[in-house]
Design a protein that fits this description.
Chain A is of the alpha/beta class. Chain A is 25% helix and 27% strand. In chain A, β1, α1 and β2 form a beta-alpha-beta unit. Chain A is globular and about 50 Å long. By secondary structure, chain B is an alpha/beta fold. Chain B folds into 2 domains: 103 residues, no CATH class; 126 residues, no CATH class. Helix content of chain B is 39%, strand content 25%. Chain B has a 4-stranded mixed beta sheet with strand order 4-2-5-10. In chain B, strands 6-9-7-8 form a 4-stranded mixed beta sheet. A two-stranded parallel ribbon of chain B has the order 1-3. In chain B, α1 runs parallel beside α4, α2 runs antiparallel to α3 and α6 runs parallel beside α8. Classes of the chains: A alpha/beta, B alpha/beta. Chains A and B meet through α5 and α6 of A and α3 of B.
Amino acid sequence: MAVWKLTTPLTDEDIEKLRIGDQVYITGTIYTGRDAAHKKLVELIEANKPLPFDVKGQIIYYVGPTPARPGKPVGSAGPTTSYRMDSYAPYLYALGIKATIGKGARSEEVKEALKKYKAVYLGAVGGAGALISKRIIKSEIVAYPELGPEAIRKMEVKDFPVIVINDMYGGDLFLEGKKKYHVE
Amino acid sequence: MKVISLKDVKENVKNVVQKANFELNEDVINVIKESMEKEESPEGKAVFDQLLENAEIARKEKLGLCQDTGLAVFFVELGEEIQFKKEDGLESLSQAINEGVREGYKEGYLRKSVVEDPLRRKNTGDNTPAFIHWELVPGDKFKVTFMAKGGGAENMSAIRMLAPAAGQKGIEDFVVETVDSAGPNPCPPIIVGVGIGGNFETSALLAKKALLRRPLGSHHSDPFYADMEKRLLERINKLGIGPQGIGGRITALAVHIEVFPCHIASLPVAVNIQCHSHRLLTFEL
């Protein structure tokens, strides 16, 4: 297991070196989105309309943070369960999203999309939203403010810690990890 | 006759919804620490470390332990002899609880995670309505337990109407299957609430009530069900899912079972999955 420091936007070369189980620290801009925002994004894609941000090389973090206290960039901000975005994710990977961050397992369709478009799925620790918020230095809503916690935010992160769950080679850390510790 | 002011109810609710979301209970922290000792996977141990660090930060900075600060679920034991005093425009007990949720979630910078219609999905903006379960009890007891229940773990819950012939084995297999198919999704290490018996709706409620038992990891008073809890925890922790699903010895922190009489034709079983961020707080007036 390697340790990598990556800066956004990500390139094909960044993705090619990542393997399941690798620890990655991300610095730069990431975008957030969960169920409601994804529905809107995919409606735009299907209608051939422009998206609210340029997705090329970018990362989408599946999160709906708690409101920020005064003077703080963000509230508690851990990952939400990713499978709910499975039906939408391949559209975004096809347009150049290089990574998504969440918790929980992905569908076969998403794993295929990772191989096809050279991308990865990264895991953050679910239920550690207070700890994770320390790595987010700025956050602003860039689309759909009416969705409240589900609005799309642009975040500046520094050494944001994630683990590679699914790489572009078909690897799956959840399957491998379970196999290792499973007892009949 | 005991008289309780609705304003006091509201103020207490406002307080517990915040405190529960910022401060992980000591019994939960203890079980996390004990389980961490048993975890064989170094990556799994690292997850436990982060959960403990997270709890420290949340408590000190009054930040949500998790960004999903939950549906506001309440279990109310309501003494039949109590009278409630209307105050501050509060006309009913249910209104007082809902007002406490509204104010507490705002004041505590907690997330508003409720949509007003399941299909049209517009956020209610204040985390109401509260989900209140009433139990009338004799006397003048007034006990309110709040649980902040996140969506991720709740989504992995399941219910099945087994035939009585399925018996103990059928129940245990269903519980283990439910946890196995949930895999990494509900934020393991999880807590498993199991409701056995009752009818369709009461089994689900029993499963949730099982999560209320404290301290976390204590066993059912009936040795038969205490043994079943131990056996289920052991089977679940052989699955290998591990903390966050990345592989490890500890998939669950505890299994709690609650039971109730049921129909001669039925053997209902419900499994309510709870994440490690087990946010629970009680007040009495």
